[in-house]
Amino acid sequence: MKIYRLVSLLTLLMFLFLSACGSPTSAKLTSKELNLYAWSDYIPQQLLDDFTAKYGIKVNYDTYSSNEEMLAKLQAGASGYDVTIPSDYTVDIMIKQGMLQPLDMSQIPNFANVDKRFINQYYDPGNKYTVPYQWGTTALVYDKTKVPFEPKSWSDLWDPRFKGRLVVLDDEREVTGMALQTLGFDKNSTDPQQLDQAKQKLVALKPNILLFNSDDPETSLITGEAWAGLVYNGNASLAYQQDPNIVYICPTEGCGLWFDNLAIPKGAPHPDAAMAFLNFVLDAKESVLITKEFPYSNPNAAALDYLKTSDPTTYDAYMAFAGTNPSADFLAHAVGVKDVGDATKLYDQLWTDFKGQ
Length: 357
Ligand code: N2P
What we know:
Blueprint: H1 2-22, E1 33-39, H2 45-55, E2 58-64, H3 67-75, E3 83-84, H4 88-96, E4 130-143, E5 166-168, H5 172-182, H6 192-205, E6 209-212, H7 218-223, E7 228-232, H8 233-242, E8 246-249, E9 255-263, H9 271-281, H10 284-293, H11 301-310, H12 312-320, H13 328-332, E10 334-336, H14 344-356
Parallel strand pairs: 1-2, 1-3, 5-6, 5-7, 9-10
Antiparallel strand pairs: 4-7, 4-8, 4-9
Helix pairs in contact: 5-6, 6-14, 10-11, 11-12
Bound molecules: pentane-1,5-diamine (N2P).
Pentane-1,5-diamine binds next to strand 9.
């Protein structure tokens, strides 16, 4: 009898301990809202609804279309945001400028779900400020039924047969980087003369550009208005899901590589909710919702394991397409954007001039 009681007591204590561990913040959360400032078309509504259902916290989701737009808004003093999703080079800038709040990793046990290849990167050594969200490439997409030849190089985009048929991201570093790569220069060049040549090169591409769009460039490929372009991997994956004639390649001159991260801006009004959100997004099942709706590459190893067992068809499709699972050769030619310091002004000016022409 005594042993039975002792066992029950121990079971109860263990249960209380485990529930406290399993749900590190739920008991202490005081916030009722979370203000999210993130890329458009990037976070499933279901995930936000699940978060609200679990924590009773309403999520307000404001969107941006580029790192530069987000950074400019926060630098201009926009306060009130709890979570944002900067890419690698923008994390670097935000940490250098003291714009991010250090994370309390004891509240983010799901960080253990992240594939070790994606932690401890140059832009945030030791993950003091960020946890990985999604990653990917920026490369050349085309519809093989529309294009009268097989593009292999960025320079193919200048072919007059593409007149008015290209969709291009509204992303100053990726697009300028592509022009620099096409000219054989470093994607992160700070040389004003090289940047000027890149601008001239882009101006010559203008007649072929149907539209600039970073939010849903896949739409123009699916409707068939655009035949090719420069997009993020997830856009190519979404287009491919609708049309198996879509091809996504890293051209001979090289392509782009990026890592997006969840971060908490300094002065966030609801840091407890923000920390809980970061942990929640890294939950394997929640993370699978991201891959299903926005098929970029997922750095969450537990999520991909869960996808493999819960939905093998989607997992196999994820593994088979270059947009979600790029080959080693694809990645060998993928180059990341880096913070170029003061030369950022040159890129900003180039982009304004080019877009305005
Ligand atoms: C989502 C954009 C993906 C982010 N619409 C590219 N870093």
